[in-house]
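Per your request, structure below.
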């Protein structure tokens, strides 16, 4: 994967377009993934050491 800065986008030609409803599906899945509730990365050794 390559990240292209917005300032360089004009140097490229469009060769395809993602059509609806596929666009909405990809966007919905991304939002669902990005906003999911996760579990914090717990340092169990630190917690065990500080229980005393």
């Amino acid at each position: 994967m390559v990240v292209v800065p917005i300032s360089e986008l004009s140097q490229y030609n469009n060769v395809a377009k993602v059509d609806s409803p596929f666009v909405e599906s990809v966007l919905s899945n991304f939002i669902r993934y990005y906003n999911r509730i996760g579990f914090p990365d717990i340092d169990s050794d630190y917690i065990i050491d500080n229980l005393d």
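The radius of gyration is 21 Å.

Regards,
D.
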